[in-house]
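Subject: FAD-binding oxidoreductase structure
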Amino acid sequence: MRPVHGWRPATIVGTARETASANSIRLAVADWAGHVAGQHIDVRLTADDGYQATRSFSLSSAPGEAPQITVERLDDGEVSPYLVDIATDGDALEVRGPVGGYFVWQPGDDAPLLLVAGGSGIAPMRAIWRAARPHGTPVRLVYSARTADRVIFADELRSPDGPETTVHLTRERAAGFEYGRLRADQLSALLSSGGVREPRLLVYVCGPTAFVEDAARELTDAGLDADLLRTERFGVGGPK
Ligand SMILES: Cc1cc2nc3c(=O)[nH]c(=O)nc-3n(C[C@H](O)[C@H](O)[C@H](O)COP(=O)(O)OP(=O)(O)OC[C@H]3O[C@@H](n4cnc5c(N)ncnc54)[C@H](O)[C@@H]3O)c2cc1C
């Protein structure tokens, strides 16, 4: 894939409400040469007075699909409330990327996958499970969200095409969900299958920085080889 540098014009060509606080946005990007599952783009917005704001967003669509981002609103944030509540078809913005060569999945990475997501950290995981599925790669997802109505991609996760999924809710109890933050012993158990340690498991962890750091530490404390762990920190927010 040819790397493309610099800012390019993009247009919003579709939006989909995922939850009350999250929106998926499909983009038409000039000169888009495709992406690898797990990569992100930088998005630059320019106000009428020339003020610009730039933020990074993971691509939630699989390679071969139109570029899509999935944004969760931070109520006191600058950019995410616009992208979740105001952005609409035809809006113009600028895009740089796709970016990233480490937190990615590509055909040939044929080990079973464990995806550990917190909040909007589910976005690149969707790209990964959709990319890996046609290759027959086993994918297990553990997803931490605050409440049941904040579970992004809920329909896809319930469908037979979704990964094997466990959702942990940190702020409420609800039927069909685990309750509470992911514990070290639960993460440790995920590294084994039928009581036998899975030697080749590739583990991806993505979400707010504190979530990623806690999960990564607990996984490596449980014996996961750091070479088999790929992390992406979003820096903000989170399913506390
Ligand atoms: C690689 C990468 C991929 C990402 N992918 C996604 C994604 O797929 N989906 C997604 O929803 N997000 C993603 N993010 C996060 C995203 O880039 C934004 O950070 C997020 O949307 C918040 O932006 P904002 O402008 O709304 O908030 P901001 O205005 O940037 O504020 C963020 C938080 O910081 C606080 N804050 C702001 N300024 C200050 C200050 N001066 N002092 C103290 N606190 C302050 C705010 O109160 C708020 O809580 C990703 C981040 C990275 C790095």
